[in-house]
Design goal:
- Helix content is 37%, strand content 14%.
- By secondary structure, it is α/β, with parallel strands linked by helices.
- The protein has one domain (7-155).
- The chain has a 4-stranded parallel β-sheet, sandwiched between helices. It has a 3-stranded antiparallel β-sheet with strand order 5-6-7, with no helix packed on it.
- 26% of the residues are buried.
- The structure holds zinc ion.
- Residues 97, 99-100, 102, 129, 131-132, 134 line the site of zinc ion.
């Protein structure tokens, strides 16, 4: 069995990292101000995703896998490029907290405090981040994210 694909995403592509996490992929960020040489050392087997062309070339020379993303490309185009290059598919069973990169836990909404009754009524299951405690459910925001992901997959012809 091959190990799952993991990513290291540069600061300019925070949105991309958030989507990768929601799709179930480990997408790490450098701490702000981390030098490129330090990032290269921290990469391990992670795929680097960056909008810095020179940095990407440098990584490639060091035999690291890199995906270069144009900042001005549409978000769908950015995601589609990643789909094409890696062949990844969303794995929502392992969705991660967009902020913490930690796999969310599925919980029955009626067992939790701090959720509005209207949410409990509509959603039997919610997803809790074990690190920051944030609670997610498959509402409007979820639907909009998954629809963008589907559009990107169509664009990548997966
Ligand atoms: Zn979290």
């Amino acid at each position: 069995m091959t190990s799952p694909i993991r990513f290291f995403v540069d600061e300019m592509l925070f949105d991309v990292a958030k989507y990768l996490r929601v799709m179930g992929y480990d997408a790490r960020f450098p701490k702000p101000g981390t030098r490129d040489s330090v990032i290269l050392r921290q990469l391990d087997s992670r795929i680097l995703i960056t909008s810095d062309r020179e940095f990407c070339q440098r990584a490639t020379r060091k035999k690291k896998e890199c995906i270069y993303i144009e900042v001005q490309d549409s978000f769908i185009k950015k995601l589609a490029k990643i789909f094409r290059r890696t062949g990844i598919r969303p794995n929502y069973k392992e969705s991660r907290c967009p902020h913490c990169n930690v796999i969310l836990k599925r919980r029955r909404s009626d067992t939790l405090r701090g959720i509005e009754p209207i949410i409990k009524e509509e959603f039997q299951w919610v997803y809790v981040c074990p690190k920051c405690g944030h609670i997610y459910w498959k509402g409007k925001q979820w639907r909009s994210m998954t629809s963008r992901i589907r559009r990107a997959m169509r664009k990548a012809r997966l």
